[in-house]
Each structure stands twice: as C-alpha cells, then as structure tokens.
Automatic annotation (TrEMBL):
Residues 1-25 form the signal peptide. The keyword Transmembrane helix applies. The chain crosses the membrane at residues 215-236, 268-289. It comes from Pendulispora rubella. Residues 130-195 form the PEGA domain. Pfam families: PEGA (PF08308). Keywords: Membrane, Signal, Transmembrane, Transmembrane helix. It comes from the Bacteria. This is PEGA domain-containing protein.
Length: 315
C-alpha cells in the first residue's frame, strides 16, 4: 500500500505476475497445486484492495484482501489486512492480525521486519480494553455486540475496542441477560452474570392451581352459608304465615296445605345449604392446611392426618 511502501507486505500472487509491484516481491516459488482461476481472482482482489485503501475505504479494502488470502493464502497479505483494521480504528483486529502475520511468517520474516511489526503491536495495546466475564453457571454463551465470544468459564479476558459494548449471556433454560459497559483504552472491566431460571409451565400451572383451591373453596363456603341464611329466614317467614293461616277461622284446607308445602320447601332447602356449607368448609380447611404441608426451611405447618391435626416442619 502506498501509505506504508517502506515496509508493505506483498501477496503471493503478486510475485507471480510481471508488474512493478511483483518486481519488489520476495519471489517465493509458485505452488504447482494453485488453480489458475483462483490465482487470477486473488491477484484482481489484491490490486482492488490496494486501490480502495488508497481511496480511504479501509473496510472495503480489508474485505477484498481477506478474499484474496482465502483464495491463495500467504502470510504477506496479513500485514496489509492488519493495516486496514488499524485504519478502521479496530485495534483488536489489527493486533490479532499482526500477531498472526508473525506466527505464519516465522523464520521467513527478517529480524528488522519482526522488530518493526512488534513495535506496531506495542503501540496498539494501550488503545485496547479488556473484560473479565464470570458466572456461577458453566456453559453460559457470551457474545459481545452480538458476536460470539465463547462460553463460561472463559479461559482468558476478552479484548475489546474502546466504546460502549453490549455483553450478553444466554443459556437454554435461563432468562438471557445483557449488560452494557463503557470502555476506554487500557480499561480492565469485570462483568458478572447471575442467571434466573425460566419457569416451568406445567409446574407453574400445578402450583397456581393448588394455591387457588383454598380460596375457591372458602368462597364457595361463604356463598353457601349466605344462601343457607336467606332460605332459613324464608322458612321462618313461611312458618309464621302458616301459623297465621291455621289460626284464621276462615282458612280453607287448601290454603293450609299450600302454606305447609311452602314452609317444608324452604326448610329442606335451608337444611341442604347448611349441609353443603359444612362440607365445603371442611374441604376449604383441608386445602388450607395442605398448602403448608411442605414448609420451607425453618417453617412449621399443620397437617391433616387420620388422627387429627399434627404439626410438621423442616429445619
């Protein structure tokens, strides 16, 4: 690239074509297994990447150079890719690419070149932040700005560029959590996740159903008791009317019989409602006591047994 022509790295395919750029290459021997079509496409993408970088479009240049590297890998192109990351203010990308360049180049890189690239790496480090992610739950998938970063426990810190970063932890069976952190260069932040388990639908329904039964039973008991009171009052009124009719000298036998039937009907209804009230009251009491049948640690509760009511508890 023109901006770094004093030590720019050249792609393998550039050394295989006759051009001023190829003339300055290290001239590695071409591989007999390289496909000619791939070689040509790699050369075109490499040259396009150079032009885009000179035009100030570092992102598009990086993509073209990475495609060229995929077609015909050569460690030389990695340095140019690192420069594109650096020009885009992606310091982490530049750091990792420069380090990869040194690893893949190994002994082929001269000592002076190695020292120059190491200096670039040291200059990048103050611009890079890091976070330590912790969680009691192993296997928690961590992502940074929607990009996967591994699972807990993470073997090392996550390197990040400065700015506001969105850290998300997710795992099947738990509610996902997202936390935002604002990072400056050289920051070393910590992010901890305390996960909350998702409720089990079947268990919740059973729990809700069981907890509602006492209230339903007590409500029905109250309604039946009110009905028993009303019909009892009506039975007393009917009985009083019956006595008045009997005491009336002019009452016919039909009137007396109707009054007795009315009194009998209200009395039977009142008796049935009283019996139902007693029954539902007993059921309501049973479910109320059963609700506390399995108390938590340190709690006591009453339990209905064949012999009566006993006290149970857990410590």
């Amino acid at each position: 690239m023109k901006r770094t022509s004093h030590y720019v790295a050249l792609l393998l395919v550039a050394s295989l074509v006759s051009s001023p750029l190829a003339a300055r290459a290290e001239d590695p021997a071409p591989s007999a297994t390289v496909d000619a079509a791939k070689l040509e496409e790699a050369r075109e993408r490499y040259n396009r990447g150079l032009r885009l970088y000179d035009q100030g479009n570092a992102l598009a240049a990086r993509i073209e150079l990475e495609r060229a590297y995929e077609l015909v890998p050569s460690y030389r192109i990695l340095y140019n890719i690192g420069l594109c990351y650096q020009a885009s203010n992606d310091y982490v990308g530049a750091l990792r690419t420069f380090q990869r360049y040194l690893i893949e180049g190994r002994d082929e890189i001269s000592d002076d070149r190695h020292a120059a690239v190491n200096k670039e790496i040291q200059n990048l480090k103050p611009n890079i932040a890091s976070i330590t992610v912790s969680s009691r739950e192993p296997g928690l998938a961590i992502s940074v700005d929607d990009v996967p970063a591994g699972q807990t426990p993470l073997p090392e810190k996550i390197l990040l560029n400065p700015g506001t970063r969105r850290i998300t932890g997710s795992k099947s069976g738990f509610l996902p959590q997202t936390k935002s952190v604002v990072l400056a260069g050289s920051d070393n932040a910590s992010v901890s996740f305390e996960l909350v388990a998702l409720p089990v639908a079947g268990a919740n329904k059973e729990k809700e159903s069981g907890s509602a039964l006492p209230y339903v039973a007590w409500g029905l008991t109250g309604a039946l008791a009110a009905g028993a009171g009303i019909t009892g009052y009506l039975a007393l009124r009917a009985n009083a009317d019956q006595n008045d009719i009997i005491d009336h000298s002019g009452a016919t036998s039909a009137q007396v019989e109707d009054a007795r039937d009315k009194t009998r009907t209200f009395s039977i209804a009142a008796d049935c409602l009283v019996a139902a009230t007693i029954l539902t009251g007993g059921i309501a009491l049973y479910f109320s006591l059963r609700k506390s049948d399995k108390p938590s640690s340190g709690e006591t509760a009453a339990r209905v047994t064949p012999g009566g009511v006993s006290i149970v508890g857990r410590f």
